[in-house]
């Protein structure tokens, strides 16, 4: 849907070179031919929507984003279905969350039609970059930054740039269970803070803990609040007690994952008792040691549904089940991937097809 977008001519990457790049791309380091940019100013609102070559942005070194961190983003994927169609997964849910993040960061609202229209325009133009390999996808990164050149910090910026870029993504960890670190010194987000907004600043503050966790042989950090589990740094957490599927209730230090929401619906549809209730760290350990807690998994766009096999903490660690991927985790993953890739029916209307005629 290029309507409203000025389309600049871009020389596409030759097919053979593209195939080579897509085959060896380390995640997030190879990008498609195009990007979308849309500008906002207090006087004009959203204007100057463009589909253009993926290229460096020209910004003033005084642009507010560099100094005061006004930045929000989204993460989602385009999939190629078994039938060859290109689809987005729940793009209106991302649009809604982007609007909520913008509101929390005092940034202008990107209307859902503009947000989804930008994604459609980019994916249609770069359709050839959507991998046909199972488990692979085209990762989409919409973001907004404050571009007004001023060091003055007396009000939110009066100029912004909304951008969408895309990067082919290979298979995530897949079935390899993660080891996670229970972080008891640092926090990711504070009550009343920006934890429920998807903003870059939340990530910057977690790098140190993430590095220390990696030094302990862990893949991810578990963020806690008052001795209860909030989430991982980039995904939400689920706990399986035999048949029951549990995740902590949303609060202002948890990012409301769209995968989390989808898993809650799928688990209920598969007949699992489903609950959103707090999970204390002490209960987590006790339930795992007693064998009542049978599986733990993470949910998020980047790594989909990934089992957690072991937990480490300053005072020792414990294993979940036999440390391998559990039945419920595996089943939910198959269901979700099946819907995303069109091999299972989509009674929820989650899959959004990119029309062929949109191709530039
Ligand atoms: C993006 C994100 C998630 C996962 O959200 P999805 O919509 O499922 O991809 C979870 N936690 C944090 C902190 C995030 O930024």
Automatic annotation (TrEMBL):
One of its GO terms (molecular function) is L-isoleucine-2-oxoglutarate transaminase activity. Gene3D superfamilies: 3.30.470.10, D-amino Acid Aminotransferase, subunit A, domain 2. The keyword Transport does not apply. It comes from the Bacteria. The keyword Isomerase does not apply. It is an enzyme of class 2 (transferase). PROSITE patterns: AA_TRANSFER_CLASS_4. Pathway: Amino-acid biosynthesis; L-leucine biosynthesis; L-leucine from 3-methyl-2-oxobutanoate: step 4/4; Amino-acid biosynthesis; L-valine biosynthesis; L-valine from pyruvate: step 4/4; Amino-acid biosynthesis; L-isoleucine biosynthesis; L-isoleucine from 2-oxobutanoate: step 4/4. Belongs to the class-IV pyridoxal-phosphate-dependent aminotransferase family. This is Branched-chain-amino-acid aminotransferase. It comes from Actinophytocola xanthii.
């Amino acid at each position: 849907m290029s309507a409203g977008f000025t389309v600049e001519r871009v020389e596409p990457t030759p097919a053979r070179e593209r195939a080579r790049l897509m085959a060896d791309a380390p995640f997030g380091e190879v990008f498609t031919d195009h990007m979308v940019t849309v500008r906002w100013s207090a006087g004009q609102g959203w204007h100057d929507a463009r589909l253009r070559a993926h290229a460096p942005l020209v910004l003033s070194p005084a642009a507010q984003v560099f100094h005061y961190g006004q930045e929000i983003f989204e993460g989602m994927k385009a999939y190629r279905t078994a039938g060859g169609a290109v689809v987005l997964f729940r793009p209106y849910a991302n649009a809604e969350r982007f609007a909520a993040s913008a509101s929390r960061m005092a940034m202008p609202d990107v209307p859902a039609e503009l947000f989804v229209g930008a994604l459609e325009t980019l994916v249609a133009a770069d359709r050839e970059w959507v991998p046909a390999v199972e488990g692979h996808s085209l990762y989409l990164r919409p973001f907004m930054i404050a571009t007004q050149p001023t060091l003055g910090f007396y009000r939110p910026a009066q100029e912004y740039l909304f951008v969408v870029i895309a990067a082919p993504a290979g298979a995530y960890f897949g079935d390899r269970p993660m080891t996670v670190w229970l972080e008891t010194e640092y926090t990711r987000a504070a009550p009343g803070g920006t934890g429920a907004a998807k903003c870059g600043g939340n990530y910057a503050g977690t790098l140190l803990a993430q590095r220390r966790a990696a030094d302990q042989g862990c893949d991810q950090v578990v963020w806690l609040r008052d001795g209860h589990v909030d989430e991982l740094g980039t995904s939400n957490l689920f706990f399986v007690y035999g048949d029951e599927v549990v995740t902590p209730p949303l609060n202002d230090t948890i990012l409301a994952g769209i995968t989390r929401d989808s898993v809650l619906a799928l688990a209920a549809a598969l007949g699992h008792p489903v609950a959103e209730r707090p999970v204390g760290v002490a209960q987590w350990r006790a339930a795992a040691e007693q064998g009542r807690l049978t599986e733990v998994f993470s949910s998020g766009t980047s790594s989909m549904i990934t089992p957690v096999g072991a937990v480490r903490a300053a005072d020792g660690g414990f294993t979940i089940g036999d440390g391998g991927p559990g039945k419920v985790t595996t089943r939910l993953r198959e269901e979700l991937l099946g819907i995303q890739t069109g091999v299972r029916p989509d009674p929820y209307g989650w899959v959004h097809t990119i029309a062929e005629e949109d191709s530039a």
